[in-house]
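In keeping with the milestone schedule agreed at the kick-off meeting, the structural modelling team has produced records for the first pair of proteins. Each record is given below as a sequence line and a structure-token line. The laboratory manager (R.T.) confirmed that both were archived under the project's standard naming scheme.
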Amino acid sequence: MAEAPRVYPIRLYGDPVLRRKARPLSPTDTLTVPGYGPQSVREVANTMLETMFEARGVGLAAPQVGLPVRLFVAAEYEDDEEEQEGGDAPLKSRVLREFVMLNPVLTVIDKKKDRSYQEGCLSIPGIYEEGVPRARAVQVRYTDLDGQERAIEADDYLARVFQHETDHLDGVFFLDRLPPEVTEDHRKALAGMQRQAKAYLNSLAEAGKERAK
């Protein structure tokens, strides 16, 4: 196994792990991101945060790095930051709060739908769409890295981030919440991502065979 990386490769649309319902986990678990050695949940979460910042994201769920567990990280910035890969300004300098949530349970507290924000996804790079319906306010109950049970309420953009990341833990993409023709409009780009996802999985399998020799 390779040593723990500074950042993880982000799994792309078409990778089966992104469609699986993730399993609960404990802060004391040992996790193994495919292709790397065992790490503590805290180590994985810290690397996920670094991965998210480097990719200029606002959130990242464990399935997006190949782990089918109910864990996501997110950040709140000084100004609402939509997924914008490839920008120049350092995101970490604008972070107000970082979040690491284990086994999050999301409850809607304002059912009115908000469609005003553009939404993107680090596993579907380069594709952004407006009109994704999200509840305006939610509460999230979760376990933190110290094993403490916590709860937070969020509205507007941060509520959208929490809903997006919770969706990932259930195998749902934001495109799934839009009419099918939207996905069809991006068919060529998504097919390219599926090919990249398959190639990466093949490379992991080949590396595993080499280690087994």
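The second protein of the pair:
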Amino acid sequence: MMDAASLAGLSIAQIERLSTLPPLETRILLCHALGLSRVQLITRSEQVPDAAQRELLAQLLLRRQAGEPIAYLTGSREFYGLEFRVTPAVLIPRPETELLVELAIERLPEGGSLLDLGTGSGAIAVAIAHARPDAHLTALDASAAALEVARGNAERHGVRVEFLQSDWYAALPAMRFDLVVSNPPYIVAGDTHLAQGDLRFEPVDALTDHADGLSALRTIVSGASAHLADGGWLLMEHGYDQAEAVRSLLAARGFAEVQSWRDLAGIERASGGRLVA
């Protein structure tokens, strides 16, 4: 274990060699603790961190060794080419969710409106708003702490998103959107993954519905028709084995063009359908 005292007198290069973490993780934490870019980390490899930097670095290394996610340690994560602030109040944005962003951008009409349910860090809404400044974005979350993070991310990237605290559709005014998207909690209660890896540190209510993994998805599908314009799309991320069940939910509610899309790993990661009159 590397504490602040054991780091005394060591250069950046020596710390990298002695760290028991994977090299990439060590470099990320070094960059964060020392305030250096990755290029500077290389060009200043013989630099010796000062006492304050050593103390911060030792704490970061210890917390990471205990399993705390890198994103929470550095307070940021890249998503769809943008840097997002993240805290333990929100899920860490993941690459597979970029599929939902791409699907939404493709289907959002010029000057159209979009609702993001359970926005968390705001990653989906902000990424879409950044790519489509012509669109009108509304994002909801039941968590006030999550909305604070999301608002900060919208401001950081200079995009317009209207945020509202709401438990799904409950507090939403009577209005209709061209598109509704959501990455809801879909992990089944008691799933062993909830006690493994990064998930141990993420907000549990954003991961699981504490039921069969489909209850939030059912709520979203059942309420969508009251908030979608005719011909509007509903797009949802879901678990690796839930695509068929989600398609059935959509079909039962009369959605047309019901289908699922695969992520880069070949997993059916998102499903959706179009509302028809």
